[in-house]
Amino acid sequence: MVRKIAFGVLWLGFITYAFFFAPPEQPGTFELIKNLSIGQWQGVNPLVIALFNLMGIWPLIYSAVIFIDGRGQKIPAWLFAIASFAVGAFALLPYLALREPNNNFVGKKNALLKLLDSRVTGVVLTVATVILVAYGLTGGDWGSFVQQWQTNRFINVMSIDFCLLCLVFPTLLGDDMARRSWKNPQLFWLIALIPLFGPLIYLSVRPPLPQVSVESISKQPAVN
Question: Which of 27, 34, 47, 87 has its C-alpha lying 20 to 30 A from 5's C-alpha?
Fold first, then answer.
């Protein structure tokens, strides 16, 4: 219950900040978003380009865990995961508040789950992230970015959204490791404490998810 309340408060706090306390919306924001989306990046700070595209990487990282986690939830995890591609943590925080602890996976993996569970997916996302981070750090203008962060609601909220996604990922990590019978507290904290690249490394090295049928569970002897 405490976890649910904490995530609910965090979600409401983020919404309140985004709409009432963040810097005002600047003219041309819609045009900036459109240009970032279609790859017309001339004149745009590489740091903004990298951040915008990393906000597309994060939903894929979460999807690689949430679609599996959702197999044992009463709420439709896929709905929150898909919405996160548009609104990031605004969609994921309610899922984290509503979900129940789930360290089992029952059934078979469909094609989507096999793709999300694949280490290849983790490696591809890691390579893409390295390229984006390198591009932003080597070509970006930090002075301009700080000024935009202080004056532009889109840049400001997107940056905080990125930080929140880094912060809350470990809340799904423990259950995902348990589903794979991977008990390693040191590894958990290593992944949890490295922003962005910790989850990516995890997706690249985690053991495949075992498939357990409902029949096999029902045949297990009861424990008195």
Answer: 87
Q: What is the Cα 111 distance to its own chain's centre?
A: 21
Task: Give the Cβ contact number of residue 175 at 10 Å.
Answer: 20
Through-space distance between the first and last CA atoms of the chain, rounded to whole angstroms:
28
Q: Which of 81, 89, 95, 94 is nearest to 159 (CA)?
A: 89
pTM: 0.91
pLDDT digits (tens, 9 = 90+) for 47-85: 999 999 999 999 999 999 999 999 889 999 999 999 999
Using CB atoms within 10 Å of the CB of residue 153, give its burial: 0 to 12 exposed, 13 to 18 middle, 19+ buried: middle
Residue 40's CB is within 10 A of a number of other CB atoms, namely 12
Instruction: Tell me which DSSP letter residue 75 carries.
Output: S
**DSSP states of 151-181:** H-HHHHHHHHHHHHHHHHTHHHHHHHHHHTT
Q: Dig out the tokens for 110 from the structure.
A: 């469909």
What single-letter amino acid sits at 15? I
- Structure token pair of residue 147: 């000024």
> Which helix H or strand E contains 50, and what residues bound it?
helix 46-69
d(CA 186, CA 158): 31
pLDDT tens digits, 109-160: 999 999 999 999 999 999 999 999 999 999 999 999 999 999 999 999 999 9
